[in-house]
C-alpha cells in the first residue's frame, strides 16, 4: 500500500509537472496578429483603400502643367490642367519620333540644333466651357483627384456660372483616352472640345543656345472633320500618325464635327442646358497606311463597346498591377511618394520606346524636349526600383532599346577604340547612335549589361538570357577587356578614362575597376546559367582574379580626426560619427595631376559643400560606385576592409549632391539605417518640386526657381551667329524622375535586399519604426514581412521557380513551415538555405511563436481626401483650397 501511494504521489507530481511545463510553454507562445494572411500569402487590406489612401487630392485647380494630373498606360500619356474656362490635356505617345537625316550626331553641334532626332507630341485636347469656371476669382467649390487604384481622374468645379465635371482615364489595354464630361450651366452655351496640334522647335539646349528659325517643327499637320469625328494627322520621318476623337454617347445633344483650320478641329455640343457626353480619343503609331482610317476603326469599336466596359476592364487591369507589391515604410508621406513613383513608371514606361527621364510621356509645351536624348546616367535610374516592385515588364522597353542599339555600339567600338565589343556613350538617340562628343566614360555598357543580368535574376527567363541578356553582356565584357592592361605587377589596370560623366582623365579609375569586377563576375555566371562555353571565359576569369585593387586615399586630420584611438568625422553632413579609419575610396590616378584624386578635395575652410571643394571633372557619384549600382560591395561584405572603407567614404561625402545622386540607396546597401532614415526624411523637401510628387535632378535650392520664377530669364546664344540674348525660362520648365526613383529604390532596399542572392529582411530599417512589405527578390521569390519597433515579427517567402532560397535570419532560431505539407521544423544560424518547390509558400516565425496562433486582422483604409504636407514645410502633395 505504501509503495502504491508513493507511486501515485510520484505519478501525480509528474502529471502536475507536465501540466506546469505545458502551461509554461503555452504562455510563451506569442499570438501573431497581422493583416497578412498566411493561408494565401496575401494582405487582408481592403481594395481599393490599400492604394487609394495615396490618391492625389486637389482642392484648388492645377492651373499650370507642372501641377497637372498625369494619366497613361505606359505608351500613351496625357497631362491635365485647367486654364480659365478650359481643361487642357497634352497628349504624347512613346513612338512618335522624328529622326534626323544624318546618322552619328554631336549633342552640342550648332549645325544640328533642332534638326536632331526628337520625339514629337501628339496633340492637345481642350474642353472649353465658355465661362471662367476654373478661375479662383469665381470658384465656389473645387475638387480634383488622381485615383491611383484605377489610374483615373475626376475634376469637379462649382461657380456662379454653373457646375462642371470631367472623368477621364487612358484604357490600359487599348491606349484610348476616354472622357465623361458633364456641365450644367445657367446659360445654354455650346460646349466645345477641340483637338489641336501646333508643332515647334525642340529647344533641347534652351538654357544655353537656341535656333531662332521659328518655322522648325510646324509643318506637316493636317486636320479633317466628317460625320465620324475629328481627325488630325502629322507626318514624321518614321511615317504619319493620326489622332481621332468622337462622341460615344451624346445623351440627346446636337453633335457637330468641324474643321477650323489645318491645326485644329472642334467637337461642338449644344441643344440642352444640362450637357452630359462621353467621348473617346485615339492616337495611332506612325504608319505608311491611312492613319485616319485606323483611328476611325478604333473609335467605331469603342462606340460598340461603351465606356463602362472599358472602365471595368481598366479597373481590373490596374488591380492586378497593384497586387504585385505592397510597402508601408511607416511614413505616410514617403509611402505616398513610393506609390506615385510606381504609378508614373506604369503610366510612362510600357510603350515601344521608354519614356524619357525628363517629363516622361507628359511633355506639355508643344514639341519642346528638354535634354532631348537618352542620357545614360539619368535614364537608368527609372528602372532601379521596378524589379523589386514586380514590374519587370516595364524594364523591357529600355532593354529592347539598348539591345537594338548593339550593332551601332559595336561599330563605334571598332571605329573609335579599335576594339571588340560594344561602346555606349553617355548620350544616345532613339536609333542607338552615340553622341560623338562623349567618349571618355567607358562604363555605360557595363552598367547596362548589369541591367540585363538583373532582369534575368528576377525573372528567371532562360529565353531572355540566351537571346538578349547574354549576347549583350558578352559584348560588354569584350569591350571592357580592351580598356584593361596587364602590367609588370601581374595585375590588370584600367587605362585612361573618366569617372562616369566627368572630364578629368584618370588611370585606374574607381568606376572602371568597379565595373570590371561586376561585369566579368556577371558574365561568368551568365555563361554558366545558359550552359554556354566560350574560350574567352578563361581570360575573363584571369582578369577577374587579378584586377588591380580599388584605389584608396588617406584624408587629412581636419577631415577625419583620431581621438583616443577612435576616428571621428570632422566634416560633412554626418559630422561627429565614428568610422573605422581615415582611408576613403579615391576616384583614380589623375593623369595630368599626377596624384590620386577624389571627387571632392578636403580643404581647411568649411564651404557650401560641407568642407569639400568640388573637382568639376569628377562626377559626384563616383565614390558610390562600388556599392550601387554595381553591387560589388554591400552588407554581404560587412566586417571586411573594403566594407569599412566604403562606409567611411559614404558617411564622409554625406547626403545627396543632386536629385540623381544614389547616396540613400548606398546607405541602405551598407545597412546604415539611422543615416538612411535621416536622409529619406529630408529628401522630399530637397528634391520634390511639384505638388503631384514630381521631382527634379538639379542643385538644391536652384531648381526651385524653375517652379517659382515666372519672369526668370537666361542668357542664351543664337546658333546661327554670335548674338546673345535673354530667353524666358518659364516655357521650358520641366520635371525629372530620377529623385523619385532614388527614393523608391532606397525604401525597397531598406525593407528587403537580395542583390547577392541572400534575402535580408529589414536590413536598413530604423530600429524605432514599424513597417511591412511585399517585394520581389532575385531568384524568383516574393517576400513579405512585418516589423514592429525593431522586432521582425514573421517572414513569408513564395518561390516562383523552385530555386534554393538563402535567407539571413533576423533571429537566432526560427520555425519554418511550408504550405505543401504543413509540417514545421526549427532552423538555426545566421544564414539558412532552404530548398523550395515552384509556387511553394514558406512561413518563418521566431522560435516561441506558432503559425497556428495567427489571427488575421482585416484593415479597411479609406481613400485619401486631403492635401498632404511634408514635415519640412517645403513641399506638398496636392493643392489646398485657395479661394
TrEMBL record:
- Give the signal peptide, or none: 1-23
Which superkingdom heads the taxonomic lineage of this protein's source?
Answer: Bacteria
The UniProt keyword set, sorted, is: Signal
What SUPFAM superfamilies does the annotation carry? Six-hairpin glycosidases
What Pfam families does the record point to?
A: Glyco_hydro_95_cat (PF22124)
- GO biological process assignments: carbohydrate metabolic process
One GO molecular-function entry: alpha-L-fucosidase activity
Boundaries of every Glycosyl hydrolase family 95 catalytic domain copy? 359-552
**PANTHER family in UniProt:** ALPHA-L-FUCOSIDASE 2
Instruction: State the protein's name.
Output: Glycosyl hydrolase family 95 catalytic domain-containing protein
Amino acid at each position: 500500500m505504501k509503495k502504491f501511494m508513493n507511486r501515485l504521489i510520484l505519478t501525480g507530481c509528474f502529471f502536475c509537472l507536465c501540466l506546469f511545463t505545458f502551461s509554461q510553454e503555452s504562455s510563451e507562445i506569442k499570438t501573431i496578429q497581422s493583416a497578412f494572411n498566411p493561408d494565401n500569402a496575401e494582405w487582408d487590406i481592403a481594395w481599393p483603400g490599400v492604394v487609394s489612401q495615396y490618391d492625389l487630392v486637389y482642392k484648388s485647380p492645377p492651373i499650370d502643367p507642372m501641377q497637372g494630373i498625369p494619366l497613361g498606360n505606359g505608351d500613351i500619356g496625357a497631362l491635365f490642367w485647367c486654364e480659365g474656362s478650359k481643361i487642357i490635356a497634352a497628349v504624347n505617345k512613346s513612338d512618335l519620333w522624328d529622326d534626323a537625316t544624318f546618322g552619328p550626331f554631336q549633342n552640342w553641334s550648332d549645325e544640328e540644333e533642332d534638326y536632331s532626332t526628337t520625339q514629337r507630341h501628339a496633340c492637345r485636347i481642350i474642353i472649353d466651357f465658355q465661362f471662367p469656371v476654373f478661375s479662383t476669382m469665381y470658384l465656389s467649390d473645387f475638387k480634383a483627384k488622381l485615383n491611383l487604384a484605377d489610374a483615373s481622374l475626376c475634376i469637379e468645379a462649382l461657380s456662379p456660372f454653373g457646375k462642371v465635371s470631367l472623368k477621364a482615364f487612358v484604357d490600359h489595354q487599348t491606349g484610348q483616352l476616354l472622357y465623361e464630361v458633364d456641365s450644367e450651366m445657367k446659360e445654354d452655351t455650346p460646349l466645345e472640345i477641340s483637338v489641336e496640334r501646333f508643332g515647334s522647335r525642340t529647344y533641347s539646349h534652351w538654357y544655353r543656345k537656341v535656333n531662332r528659325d521659328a518655322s522648325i517643327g510646324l509643318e506637316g499637320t493636317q486636320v479633317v472633320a466628317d460625320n465620324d469625328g475629328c481627325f488630325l494627322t502629322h507626318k514624321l520621318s518614321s511615317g504619319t500618325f493620326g489622332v481621332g476623337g468622337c462622341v460615344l454617347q451624346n445623351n440627346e445633344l446636337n453633335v457637330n464635327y468641324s474643321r477650323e483650320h489645318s491645326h485644329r478641329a472642334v467637337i461642338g455640343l449644344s441643344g440642352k442646358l444640362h450637357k452630359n457626353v462621353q467621348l473617346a480619343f485615339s492616337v495611332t503609331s506612325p504608319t505608311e497606311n491611312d492613319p485616319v482610317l485606323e483611328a476611325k476603326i478604333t473609335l467605331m469599336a469603342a462606340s460598340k463597346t461603351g465606356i463602362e466596359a472599358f472602365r471595368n476592364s481598366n479597373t481590373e487591369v490596374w488591380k492586378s498591377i497593384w497586387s504585385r507589391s505592397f510597402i508601408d515604410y511607416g511614413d505616410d508621406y514617403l509611402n505616398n511618394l513610393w506609390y506615385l513613383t510606381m504609378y508614373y513608371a506604369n503610366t510612362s514606361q510600357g510603350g515601344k520606346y521608354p519614356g524619357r527621364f525628363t517629363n516622361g510621356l507628359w511633355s506639355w509645351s508643344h514639341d519642346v524636349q528638354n535634354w532631348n536624348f537618352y542620357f545614360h546616367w539619368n535614364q537608368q535610374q527609372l528602372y532601379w526600383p521596378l524589379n523589386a516592385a514586380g514590374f519587370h515588364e516595364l524594364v523591357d522597353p529600355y532593354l529592347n532599346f539598348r539591345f537594338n542599339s548593339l550593332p551601332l555600339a559595336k561599330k563605334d567600338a571598332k571605329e573609335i577604340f579599335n576594339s571588340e565589343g560594344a561602346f555606349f556613350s553617355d548620350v544616345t538617340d532613339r536609333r542607338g547612335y552615340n553622341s560623338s562628343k562623349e567618349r571618355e566614360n567607358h562604363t555605360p555598357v557595363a552598367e547596362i549589361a548589369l541591367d540585363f543580368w538583373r532582369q534575368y535574376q528576377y525573372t528567371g527567363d532562360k529565353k531572355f538570357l540566351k537571346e538578349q541578356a547574354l549576347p549583350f553582356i558578352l559584348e560588354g565584357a569584350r569591350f571592357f577587356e580592351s580598356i584593361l592592361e596587364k602590367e609588370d605587377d601581374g595585375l590588370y589596370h584600367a587605362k585612361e578614362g573618366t569617372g562616369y560623366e566627368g572630364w578629368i582623365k584618370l588611370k585606374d579609375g574607381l568606376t572602371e575597376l568597379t565595373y570590371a569586377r561586376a561585369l566579368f563576375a556577371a558574365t561568368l555566371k551568365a555563361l554558366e546559367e545558359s550552359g554556354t562555353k566560350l574560350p574567352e571565359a578563361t581570360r575573363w576569369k584571369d582578369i577577374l582574379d587579378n584586377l588591380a585593387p580599388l584605389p584608396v586615399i588617406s584624408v587629412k586630420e581636419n577631415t577625419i580626426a583620431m581621438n583616443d584611438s577612435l576616428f571621428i568625422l570632422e566634416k560633412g553632413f554626418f559630422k561627429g560619427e565614428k568610422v573605422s579609419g581615415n582611408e576613403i575610396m579615391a576616384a583614380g590616378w589623375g593623369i595630368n595631376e599626377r596624384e590620386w584624386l577624389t571627387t571632392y578635395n578636403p580643404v581647411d575652410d568649411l564651404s557650401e559643400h560641407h568642407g569639400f571643394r568640388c573637382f568639376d571633372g569628377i562626377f559626384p557619384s563616383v565614390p558610390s560606385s562600388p556599392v550601387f549600382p554595381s553591387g560589388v560591395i554591400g552588407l554581404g561584405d560587412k566586417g571586411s576592409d573594403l566594407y569599412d572603407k566604403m562606409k567611411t567614404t559614404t558617411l564622409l561625402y554625406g547626403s545627396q549632391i543632386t536629385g540623381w545622386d544614389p547616396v540613400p540607396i548606398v546607405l541602405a546597401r551598407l545597412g546604415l539605417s539611422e543615416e538612411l532614415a535621416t536622409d529619406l526624411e529630408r529628401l522630399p523637401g530637397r528634391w520634390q518640386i511639384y505638388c503631384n510628387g514630381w521631382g527634379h535632378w538639379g542643385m538644391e535650392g536652384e531648381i526651385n526657381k524653375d517652379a517659382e520664377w515666372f519672369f526668370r530669364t537666361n542668357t542664351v546664344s543664337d546658333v546661327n551667329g554670335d548674338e546673345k540674348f535673354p530667353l524666358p525660362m518659364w516655357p521650358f520648365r520641366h520635371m525629372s524622375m530620377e529623385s523619385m526613383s532614388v527614393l523608391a529604390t532606397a525604401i525597397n532596399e531598406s525593407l528587403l535586399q537580395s542583390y547577392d542572392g541572400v534575402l535580408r529582411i529589414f536590413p536598413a530599417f530604423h530600429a524605432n519604426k514599424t513597417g511591412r512589405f511585399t517585394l520581389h527578390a532575385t531568384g524568383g521569390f516574393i517576400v513579405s514581412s512585418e516589423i514592429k519597433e525593431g522586432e521582425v515579427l514573421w517572414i513569408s517567402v513564395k518561390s516562383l521557380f523552385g530555386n534554393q532560397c538563402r535567407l539571413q535570419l533576423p533571429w537566432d532560431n526560427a520555425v519554418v513551415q511550408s504550405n505543401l505539407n504543413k509540417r514545421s521544423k526549427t532552423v538555426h544560424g545566421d544564414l539558412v538555405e532552404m530548398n523550395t518547390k515552384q509556387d511553394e509558400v514558406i512561413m518563418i516565425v521566431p522560435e516561441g511563436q506558432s503559425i497556428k496562433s495567427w489571427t488575421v486582422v482585416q484593415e479597411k483604409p479609406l481613400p485619401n481626401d486631403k492635401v498632404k504636407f511634408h514635415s519640412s514645410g517645403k513641399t506638398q502633395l496636392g493643392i489646398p483650397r485657395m479661394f
